[in-house]
Amino acid sequence: MNIILLGPPGAGKGTQARHLVETRGMVQLSTGDMLREAKDSGTDMGNRVAEVMARGDLVTDEIVIGLIREKLHGDTGAGIIFDGFPRTLKQATALKELMDEEGKSLDAVIELRVRDEVLVERIAGRSTCGNCGEVYHDVTKPQPADGKCERCGAADFRRRADDNEESLRNRLMEYYKKTSPLLGYYYAHDLLKRVDGLAEIKVVQASIEAILDA
Ligand code: AMP
Which atom of ligand 1 approaches the CA of 60 most closely? Predict the structure, then answer.
């Protein structure tokens, strides 16, 4: 099964994708993670996109399509979860072509719906474990008092450079202008499913699993 998780920053795409990786052996393809890795390892491309990402703008379609193209060849386990890709109509049509070339297809596009004010709260307090990606929140899930990740034990908590109010405002604008048209696109392809992203994490998990099992 190959699915897209679609929704604004902070909707819970990464958290839900990780759950599906653990429970179903699916493969998470997050262009945001790939770009951050490129930035951290100081590659040419990483250096070029760092400023764009910090501002909360989208990087070029060519770059992210190139990143996804490389990953579609390999072993895609029990299926792919596209997390943060596609974000533009051009990326969506490129994805269709790449999937066709690989003899793969999309089974569902799941929209996580969350109100803007909740996104701001979620993102403002967010940190992640640099080792395993576990997500923490200052209010709802504080980092453990012993300073070690509850999942993997690493002491490497990170806050994203773009998780600040100004950048978030820009990321939301980018989402509404460039990504939300994909909702209509996938609705027309009869792939769109909607999930209430405001519900508890486990409830959202169950809704997504029900869609995958249907
Ligand atoms: P994310 O981790 O998905 O929130 O992405 C973080 C940042 O990476 C975004 O704000 C963009 O600057 C960039 N990015 C990630 N995925 C894409 C994409 N599919 N298209 C364009 N830019 C992207």
Answer: 21
Q: How far apart are the CA of 59 and the centre of ligand 1, in A?
A: 7
Burial (Cβ within 10 Å: 0-12, 13-18, ≥19) of residue 26: buried
Q: Is the pLDDT of residue 74 over 80?
A: no
Residue 184 has pLDDT above 80, yes or no: yes
Between the CA of 67 and the centroid of ligand 1 the distance, in Å, is 12
Torsion of CA 114, 189, 33, 14, to 10 degrees: 40
Rounded to two decimals, what is the model's pTM? 0.93
Mutate to test the pocket of ligand 1, among 5, 58, 62, 169 (most ligand atoms within 8 A of CB): 58
Q: Measured from the CB, is residue 197 less than 6 Å from ligand 1?
A: no
Q: Residue 31 CA: which ligand 1 atom is closest? A: 16
Task: Enumerate the β-bridge partners of residue 126.
Answer: 137
What are the Cα distances from residue 178, in Å, to 20, 53, 101?
27, 15, 25
pLDDT of residue 142 exceeding 80: yes
SS3 call for 13: helix
**Dihedral sign (CA 28, 200, 105, 213):** positive
Q: Check pLDDT > 80 for residue 146.
A: yes
Q: pLDDT digit string (tens) for 6-38?
A: 999 999 999 999 999 999 999 999 999 999 999
Spatial contact of 151 and 130, defined as CB atoms under 8 Å apart: no
Return the active site residues: 13, 87, 126, 160, 171
- The partner residues of 108 in beta bridges, in order of sequence, read 3
